[in-house]
Amino acid sequence: MSSERPLKIAYLCDISPEHAQPYSGGNARIFGALSDHADLTILPQSWGLAEPTRRAIYALSDAAQLRLRWRAHLALARIIAAPLNRQLAEGGFDVVFGAYAFQSMSRIAPPPGTLSVFTSDATPTVYKRSEIGQSFGSSWVSRQLLDPLTLRAERRIFNATDLLLWPSDWLKSRADALYDLPSGKAHVLPWGANVADPGPGAAPPAPGPGAPLHLLVVARDWFAKGGPVAFDTMQALRARGLDARLTVIGCTPPDFHLNEQVTLLGPLDKSDPDQARRFDAAMRAAHFLVQPSFESYGFAFCEASAFGLPSLCLDVGGVPVRDGINGRALPKESTPSDFADVVMGYAADPAAYDALRQTARREYETRLNWRAWAGAAIAVMREKLAEKRAQ
Q: Does 83 share its domain with 218?
């Protein structure tokens, strides 16, 4: 056992990690994973003298908050950071660790010998310029006036931060180039599944003629997560003679994507034991997670791997699916027929399907779990902290 004392970390985000739901549970999981290895203090979310502005923004609609909160924070960063910098100067911290909200790191000035670290699955400009963000479009005002200001703030903040921990090669490669980051500043450490380790468990009967084939979608937004493609994939498989069925967790599809073969489980709170059991049962019964979504990461893919459930997705963004290891990542122009082709191939080759389930579970055990992430994060933070203090 190491004799090193735990790192003393000041944790910074615009939403407290004590709240489990925001950021799809990632903020709480990051905090919890680090807490197993370090002494953490949550820095206040207050904006100091600008706190009335923050409260006024939180009184607006969710959509308005999303647009205004981080931009207002950047504009008021000197005021907001002042009390936080005083706390950092007095707290004797080894690390100030920012998660998700890059604006929270603006004008943060750690005292000498304190390491600054940031992690997120995307940045505003990387996301907006990617095929993911471009699928949503933007206004002229945003493109011409606001986006250049955002990019300038990102470059300043990320170059001033000592260590950047990105969960995907996709984000690292784009951020390195976009922000002109020096070599060694950014590291890729995949995030984990937002479920307790379910153990290997038993696989469902192999898919094939005469046996039900269960597809699964986990989505709060049916369209954003590729639900229509999953539904049409089920229909294509049924037309080819397989008894394909679809289970949906998290949302209700429109009527034209519902039929007798679609089962709705609704939103499931995994912190509730009964709902967690229903979630686990759906994961264990499924043959494939079919989620052809455009997103920067996707915890559902990590969770599928925890259950040894192969994922079928698009090869876009930072989706944590390695083709042929924990699922299949198809070209972004793939159709429901293409997804059905993949399923039919595994239905005809049970040994290949079983092997895919085994490597999916191994991917979780070795890479897509928070224990692995935290161990690697603490190690690289110690290394960078030693380098900083030796200068």
A: no
- The token duo for 308 is 């040894």
pTM of the model: 0.93
Q: Please, are residues 3 and 381 in contact by the beta-carbon 8 Å criterion?
A: no
In one-letter notation, the amino acid at residue 349 is D
- What digits encode the pLDDT tens for the residues 282-296? 999 999 999 999 889
Domain that holds residue 353: 212-366
**Cα–Cα distance, 132 to 135 (Å, whole number):** 6
Residue 245's DSSP bridge partners are 214
Query: Which residues, given as ranges, of the chain have pLDDT below 50?
Result: 1, 140-141
DSSP label at 323? B
The total domain count for the chain is 2
Residue 374 lies in a domain: yes
> Can you give the three-state secondary structure of 238-270, one letter per residue?
HHCCCEEEEEEECCCCCHHHCCCCEEEEECCCC
- Specify the DSSP class assigned to residue 144: I
Question: Based on the domain organization, do 169 and 245 belong to the same domain?
Answer: no
